[in-house]
């Protein structure tokens, strides 16, 4: 069992295996699928691109962003695939498309995440020309997302296509959008563009997440058993300060397996390395640095011999499960480590709320 605690530096070569894993998965067109034979979705693709940015693989990260700009639909969205509907042993090569068939969706959270990736990349590179070039794509994506905000402040989970009829909202998805709106507003201000409407939309979304729980999971079973619904409002900065610490404390014993990590779902003996890494960052936002450092230290025992991270660990059967090493899992550990160690100028992005709401 390997528990590694980092101070203000990452050991040389520690992420070489993760770097290699993401790069071997990246296709010639810049796309980064989940894993070998896995699907591609804009959110996890962008997560992997941010991992590359932290590691200094700037050109490969920009290839990933070019893939996003090349495949963006006219309305600002992307076709994606509903990750939770894909079996872990599914070897289908999903290439995307606008045929509206099968699992194809236009997820609002997927679309918004380009703003987070773009702002993160700019914080590291300070390349204003690159930021200006990607701005039209960010602007179009955020316009698409905000167009699905209800009068109550929540944002519909996906475009209202025939195969996504549920007029409903997700706590995790809306929390992630809240963070993406924060980043989009930063980009707009950096480039001298108007962001007033986005600020107002973000404030309404924050209020819905904090004060209107009835607006979420209205048409399907509650997602309460998923750990992301617990920590994402904290990670995204929707809930901060003492309220954030109380939220974390209420379900810590339900979701956290001591010495291992964060469960994906409350009723299964399965910790997932990406969720654990995101919880690390949520703990930093909540001001729980010691817990964040300890949780991050536990994750390094789930590295394979090649240095890449397993997706998860089933601790009753004592096996890595699924037997996959996703690009976005590697990226989540990289981003969490950067947040803890302060390696890059983007390290604070996922360690605090960097922008107050409009009414504050």
Description:
The structure is a single chain. This protein has 360 residues and is mainly α. It has a single domain (27-89, 104-341), classed as Glycosyltransferase, CATH 1.50.10.10. Helices cover 48% and strands 4% of the residues. It has 12 helices and 7 strands. It has helices spanning 16-25, 42-54, 58-71, 108-125, 128-146, 171-190, 196-211, 227-235, 241-255, 273-285, 289-299, 327-341, and strands spanning 80-81, 104-105, 256-257, 261-262, 270-272, 312-314, 319-320. The strands form 3 sheets. It has a 3-stranded antiparallel beta sheet with strand order 5-6-7. β3 (256-257) and β4 (261-262) form a beta hairpin. α8 (227-235) packs antiparallel against α9 (241-255), α10 (273-285) runs antiparallel to α11 and α10 (273-285) packs parallel to α12. The chain starts with 15 loop residues before the first helix and ends in a 19-residue tail after the last helix.
Note the topology.
Layout: H1 16-25, H2 42-54, H3 58-71, E1 80-81, E2 104-105, H4 108-125, H5 128-146, H6 171-190, H7 196-211, H8 227-235, H9 241-255, E3 256-257, E4 261-262, E5 270-272, H10 273-285, H11 289-299, E6 312-314, E7 319-320, H12 327-341
Antiparallel strand pairs: 1-2, 3-4, 5-6, 6-7
Helix pairs in contact: 1-12, 2-3, 2-4, 2-12, 3-4, 4-5, 4-6, 5-6, 6-7, 6-8, 8-9, 8-10, 10-11, 10-12, 11-12
